[in-house]
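Structure in, sequence out. Go:
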């Protein structure tokens, strides 16, 4: 069941830092996932139920079918979330000119291009698609992992068109690598790789709507990860530089130059992190005074 949701562009204005809140989710920590859901609702397939009330529900389900579909969506969401968080981290590391990470990115880029080139050569040698699939899955060690991946392997084996598609994706990566590999500025190489990665990130699509009898531009999103990815891309276009919150260590988008904490959550005036930090300081001062008295 796939529903399409037109998310009001308003959502973007109300929660301009949704993408950074999404970056804070630790998928190994249920509490951090629930904290996000409490503030923003279920992040995937917003319209699992057709009435909007469900959006802010406390995850209570009516029947088994619904529970399963919510669980499946959670899985899909985590998969997309991991991809999103990796790309955001990569972007931030490059902006901060982290030399070690940029060198790693260059190696990853090179390894992937070499891997592709080797397999494309095999493909051109006119092997059967089955042989080609064998090569790909043996060489990438995917085959050895069995289970789910075995199904993927079988699907590719029986579908030469899909293999050709893979080949084409590989072409773009190889060509791009060949173009930038001798570049002396490692930042350019890292950004080029990041740009390829960005293409994997679904970030909604442009659409139009009618408001007060006029056709106006709008964005169409299928889920909150797409909204977050859209915001991330905007931040990259704007060449923003994120800062680390001195309370929680998470990345935030400074609205003014002296900002030291995460921005306030939607609908709130004060930053939660700023409050927590100040209260802790106050407690510490109080404790210091008391210990001096003794
Ligand atoms: Zn913070």
């Amino acid at each position: 069941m796939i529903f399409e949701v037109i998310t009001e562009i308003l959502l973007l204005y109300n929660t301009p830092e949704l993408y950074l809140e999404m970056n804070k989710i630790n998928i190994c920590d249920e509490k951090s996932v629930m904290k996000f859901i409490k503030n923003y609702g279920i992040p995937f397939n917003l319209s699992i139920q057709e009435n909007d009330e469900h959006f802010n529900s406390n995850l209570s389900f009516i029947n088994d079918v619904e529970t399963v579909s919510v669980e499946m969506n959670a899985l899909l969401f985590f998969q997309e979330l991991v991809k999103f968080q990796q790309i955001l981290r990569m972007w931030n590391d490059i902006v901060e000119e982290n030399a070690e990470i940029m060198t790693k990115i260059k190696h990853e880029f090179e390894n992937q291009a070499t891997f592709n080139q080797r397999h494309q050569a095999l493909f051109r040698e006119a092997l059967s698609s089955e042989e080609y699939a064998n090569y790909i899955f043996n060489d990438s060690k995917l085959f050895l992992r069995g289970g789910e991946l075995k199904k993927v392997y079988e699907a590719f084996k029986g579908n030469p068109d899909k293999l050709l598609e893979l080949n084409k994706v590989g072409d773009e990566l190889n060509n791009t690598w060949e173009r930038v590999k001798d570049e002396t500025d490692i930042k350019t190489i890292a950004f080029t790789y990041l740009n390829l990665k960005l293409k994997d990130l679904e970030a909604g699509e442009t659409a139009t709507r009618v408001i007060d009898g006029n056709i106006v531009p709008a964005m169409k999103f299928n889920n909150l990860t797409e909204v977050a990815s859209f915001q991330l891309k905007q931040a990259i276009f704007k060449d923003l530089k994120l800062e680390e919150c001195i309370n929680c260590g998470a990345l935030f988008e400074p609205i003014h130059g002296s900002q030291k904490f995460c921005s306030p959550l939607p609908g709130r005036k004060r930053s939660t992190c700023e409050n927590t930090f100040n209260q802790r300081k106050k407690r510490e001062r109080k404790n210091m005074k008391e210990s001096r008295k003794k």
